[in-house]
Fold:
Amino acid sequence: MPKSNVAIIILAAGASTRMGRPKQLLPYQGRSLLQHTIESAIASVCKPVVVVLGANAQQIRSEVTQPFVQVVENSQWNLGMSASIRSGIRSLSTYSESIDAAVITVCDQPFLSSEIINLLVEAYHSLAKAIVASEYAETLGVPALFSRTFFSELAALGETVGAKQLINRHLNQVFRVPFPLGAVDIDTPKDYEELQATI
Structure:
């Protein structure tokens, strides 16, 4: 695989309203969901690793103990995922111009792995597609990679939308990577119970 100039942004700023407690901190395989996601990111070819926090940031920040992980606090987390994407993308401007793409992912997909992240990067380098998205449950979504040509559009997303809108807007520029288990995300206590029953 070519040397990567791809950053990864982990969105972990949500208030977990439906869960009733910060889902970022839910135990999963001996660590928290957030730690699992960070470890998958660190083990991938992506650098830098950026974590965007918002709601409960003070409580969650103590989970981010890995060196070389940049934590960004999104004070406007209540405006939705787009505000966190904006915070993450803007933080990349502190790095050199060598970052030519970014993977955007979330911390509530327990089956995320470094292998999936690397597949996105590999497809980006070998196929020269501007967007590489995960495909599951008859939809396209995160984790998804965007070339830097889309950074300004990502930073300008409307308040109530996420990266999926951008993917759908530019389908002719999207390469799809199958990730069937990407359909599993943890939003409610029932989701978490079902996950625990499978491990």
